[in-house]
């Protein structure tokens, strides 16, 4: 019998990362280019503390890595294929149902 547990775990982890708009914005920004936390916070418009919490989540999910750069730390996607996956996912969802929106997280149902 074929087991899909590892594949499902990976997709769940990716889905959790994408479930938050701030994490989505971080991933999309890093898709464009590696960045330093202070620059990401300014670009995304969140506090550095809040950004740090989201970056920790993305690191724990294995989607971003830190790269030492002198006394600073730069963030980048773990693999360039993640950027391609984000593009493919975004365009596929738009192509299928461009006029749909997901209900708020407070709603019982979700897409």
UniProtKB/TrEMBL annotation:
Signal peptide: none annotated. InterPro entries: ArsR-like_HTH, HTH_ArsR_DNA-bd_dom, HTH_Metal-responsive_Reg, WH-like_DNA-bd_sf, WH_DNA-bd_sf. Residues 4-100 form the HTH arsR-type domain. It comes from the Bacteria. This is Metalloregulator ArsR/SmtB family transcription factor. It comes from Streptomyces akebiae.
């Amino acid at each position: 019998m074929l087991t899909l547990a590892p594949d499902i775990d990976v997709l769940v982890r990716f889905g959790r990362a994408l479930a938050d708009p701030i994490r989505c914005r971080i991933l999309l920004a890093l898709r464009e280019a590696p960045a330093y936390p202070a620059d990401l916070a300014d670009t995304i418009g969140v506090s550095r503390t809040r950004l740090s919490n989201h970056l920790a989540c993305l690191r724990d999910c294995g989607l971003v890595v830190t790269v030492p750069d002198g006394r600073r730390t730069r963030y980048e996607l773990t693999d360039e294929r993640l950027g391609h996956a984000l593009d493919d996912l975004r365009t596929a969802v738009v192509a299928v149902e461009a006029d749909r929106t997901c209900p708020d997280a407070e709603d019982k149902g979700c897409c």
